[in-house]
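Example 9 (inverse folding). The structure is encoded as follows.
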């Protein structure tokens, strides 16, 4: 392959990794952890004998949502920037 074609594939691959890292971070942090935690707390409060463990687990999910989303996103964004900058 020519050098220009290889560089073009690296740039496209880097952009795809960056975009998918952003999508992964938003999905995991916002949807799974934050919204899932809120729904889990509501479901745990609807049960007749209210237990503390499901409520505590879902509150921890809500509190850790941004951290998990950022870490999951960076797992793809950092390699994407490395490929994109080469």
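The amino acid assigned to each position is listed next.
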């Amino acid at each position: 392959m020519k050098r220009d074609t290889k560089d073009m594939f690296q740039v496209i691959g880097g952009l795809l990794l960056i975009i998918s890292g952003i999508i992964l971070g938003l999905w995991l942090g916002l949807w799974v952890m934050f919204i899932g935690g809120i729904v889990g707390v509501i479901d745990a409060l609807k049960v007749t004998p209210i237990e503390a463990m499901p409520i505590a687990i879902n509150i921890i999910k809500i509190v850790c949502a941004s951290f998990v989303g950022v870490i999951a996103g960076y797992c793809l964004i950092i390699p994407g920037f490395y490929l994109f900058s080469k």
